[in-house]
Design brief:
It contains 13 helices and 13 strands. A hairpin with a 2-residue loop joins strand 1 and strand 2. Helix 3 packs parallel to helix 6 and helix 7 packs across helix 8. The strands form 3 sheets. It has an 8-stranded mixed sheet with strand order 5-4-13-11-12-10-8-9, with helices on both faces. With 399 residues, it is an alpha/beta fold.
Length: 399
Amino acid sequence: MPDPVKRGRDNRGAMSGGRIAVIAMFLGLAVVAVVLIIFIAKDMGKEPEDTTGSTTAQTSAKSTEKATEKKTEKKTDTTEAPTTEEPTTEEQLPDGTKYETPTPCGNGYVLDGQIFSVACAGHSTADYYADMVNTVASKLPNKVKLYDIVAPTAFGACLSVDVQNEMAGNNQPEIIAYINSKITNSKAVGVDAVSNIIKHNAEYIYYNSDHHWTVMGAYYAYVAWCRAKGIEPHTTDFFFTTYRFEGFLGSFYSLAGSPSFLEQNRDVVEAFVPNGTNDLTFIDQDGTSFDWNVIYDVTDWARTSKYNCFIGGDNPYTEITNPSIKDGSACILIKESYGNAFAPFLVDHYSHVYVIDYRYYTGNLLSFISSHNVKDVIILNNMEAIGGGRADQISNLFP
């Protein structure tokens, strides 16, 4: 018979051991639960796999990329408009395009106090003109470069292309771009002046009472020419002396029937004197030679004559020698009256600037180029002056 005391002790021991095992099991489960809870909490609190490192890298990369883009944009602005245009960037320039159709005013059209003349050539005229440029270029010596500038009038630079198409059947920016695309001779460059001028059409770049551009219209064409040539233009504050002639009433004043709103708000003619010299010599249509000024003081001249402050007006031959440039460099500007306001900007780039008004000059420019060490030939016409007759006059100078 078993010992009852011993069996009781054995039972109590078994019971005690069972309790210990159960407690141990519960403690083990508790530890596992705590570990799981901690693991889950940590897993929920952290970023997805590798995001901490990659997010930092991506943020750094994006910051670097933005900084690079900003630097590139700034460099591009400086390259395209190197300290030559207003401190405003291309994106900040206001749009001065007029989207309304001008109304008849005498023999012109008026909108916002400005007179417009309808002017736009067709593609056949553009083909003929471009062919003239290519032909002239083909006759030039190999080291001579020809730059052709077709300037828009106020009609082409200030009115929307829809309005131009409505009034003329074509628009000037498209025709000018077409001409430039047709200039294919390797010695010729079609200068895209129209784009730079239109960008600034909120500024005073054309007179309200005259068919010419202002000095700033000519300046933006000059900047475009410098870009085409690969040189840095001068800033407007480069020039030491600036003239301002008030009270100008131009050719559109009589065209529009002498309206009172032009009389009461007369134009202002501004001009920059070249730093190198303000002296020139021109030969008039009678063959008489005159010593004159690149920018002449026309303060006391008649109100209709103030645009003639530029290079003495329209003369067959004008010569400007800049004594501060001694490298013998020379250019010819072949022009109509739009070229008068453009010519002064060339003076501080060359030893010699020769200005030819093709409407009156009758000499042989091929011989002239060879004997005067000319390396650049610039043809400048506004959109009203590219017709077949004008193109023929230029061609005749290069027999």
